[in-house]
Please model this.
Amino acid sequence: MKTNDLMRESYSALAVNKVRSTLTMLGIIIGIASVIAMIAIGQGAQAMVQANIQSIGSNLIVVTPGVQKGPGAFISLGRGSAENLTMADYQAIASQVPSIQAVAPELSKPYQITAKGTNTHTQVIGTNQNYPIVRNVNMQDGSFVTAQEVSSNAKVAVLGPTTASDLFPNIADPIEQTIKINSIDFKIIGVMQSKGGSGFFNQDDMVIIPISTAQHYLAGPNSNGQPYVSDISISAVDQNSMSAVQQEVTNLLLQRHKITDPSQADFTVQNQASIVSAASSVTGTFTILLASIAGISLVVGGIGIMNMMLTTVTERTREIGLRKAIGATRRDINLQFLAESVILTFFGGFIGIVLGWLIALAAAHFLSFPAQVNTSSIILAFGVSAFIGIAFGYYPALRASKLDPIVALRFE
Amino acid sequence: MIQLQNIFKSYFNEGIETRVLKNINFSIEEGEFVAIMGPSGSGKSTLMHILGALDSPTSGKYILDGHDVSTLSDDNLAEIRRKKIGFVFQSFNLLPRATVVRNVALPLVYAEIERSKREEMAKSALLQSGLDESRFYHLSNQLSGGQQQRVAIARALVNNPALVLADEPTGNLDTKTGDIVLGTFQDLNEQGRTIVLITHEPYVAEHANRIIHIKDGEVLSDEKNTHRRAVIEHRGVVENRDVVENHGAVENQDAIESKNTIEH
Model:
């Protein structure tokens, strides 16, 4: 029997019973659609979490100070509050650690900020020209703090988009306007692009000023008379060098702070990659969980196919007997019934992929969620549905092919 | 053309042997119209299965068109059926929701004939079996019983078989329609077809030129039919075939039809 004739015979047998074929296909359609949609939503969630973490900075390593110990070392003021990270530490890292793309010192503290008739309370970050590279900042208007402005203690400020609209609700372009931080006038030179306010703090609500200005006018030196920073952000050249950079920075600072036991370090070096991978493994686990639940419905759909095929074989016993009497071999009969179940799962799989895609798009639209349908999940879904067609169609087809034509022709 | 030599057939049920055919010997020449007659349980159905290559004898030799068929495997038997034999069944066994032409062409699908040629061959077989051309593209379950049986006869002829085997072909038809179908067989025989007809009705058997009686698995008698009943002589009947048949269809066939198509 020729292949195109086989397909035609199988198709017309299915077309004779359209309602039943459609209902059987529905099992596969729902199974494949839910697998596709669940994987798409899961991968979308994963991508969203990763993008959020990446938006903080690319290949970011952050050095924060350790615990500030009061006199007698009994009262602890909390991690990150010590003033023992200095500008000298920053310069040492910048000049001595290899594989660094950029380093930015940061000195941040919240202040009440006033403009004409408005005011807000937000974080003021003193930093230098490297900050946009390290923290993935793009400018919406104007320019960022320059090296020249840092060395000249310029009283200039860059606003986050939220801060800009809070302070200047009626002015579209607040550049050249003046704000007061701690009663000191600052000229606005730029507004940053929005990063999307999510996570633990709003990255769009902040004011950036040159670090020298912050140290000179706002913070002052630490107890040893040295200009200090509240953290140092480092961007490694690529993802692979991150752990090496982390190690180098740790060693350098231990040496500079004269600490021999790393567990006694008065600073912390955090690696963004570890945060990303932790978050990814959580969302990855959820994706697998969702896909497995959807997979169960696929198996149920497969059993539906087997059930329908067994019923069909019984109902069409005399037809099978006739086909054998007019010269069909066992193989012809076997292939015809196998083709029927594969056609069902193939079309069911195709419709399921389209439906799953639509569900993922709808979810992306209504939950403002970047659902991703990728080729590998489509290939997987097609493979699985074809496999189900063969696996669950095999036994009914075998039963059909083994029927004795004499018995089959007499079947009532 | 057909030779049966010392054919035995036994069935074994839990070790107990039941002999159905005991030493059957006869031969059929090309162009003969033979009726095999016997009461139910005589073994005539088993004999038909062996003649039709649906079953193999326990011992003995069956030679069909020069080939020894008695020891072939299942798939080789399927090939013999595909090439050498055309079946006509009591219950027509047509695909119900397929057109007449598609039903007739079905054996050609398994013979791997080109699709373009199949339709042509099916139509010429339908003309031989005498079905009205206007019905070629009707669905088979829209036809009367007599018309369905003629579609089945066309299906048996389409692969140009050496032997046409008919198993109680008039069993589900009323007398008038049955006569027309028997007439069709006589027409085909006059065109040179070899036909073997299995029946338990003496009236039906009398249309053949030779009658073999079977009883208890043995040949009881084998003789030429000298007073052959000739439907063909009543030309009026032949010419008005479709008219008669259509009346029969309306009045008698509805109940039988629903039973005789293969239910999907």
About this structure: Chain A has two domains: 3-53+278-410, 83-265. Chain A has a mean pLDDT of 87. Chain A touches chain B at residues 1-2, 4-5, 9, 12-13, 16-17, 315-316, 318-319, 321-332, 405-406, 409 (CB under 8 Å).
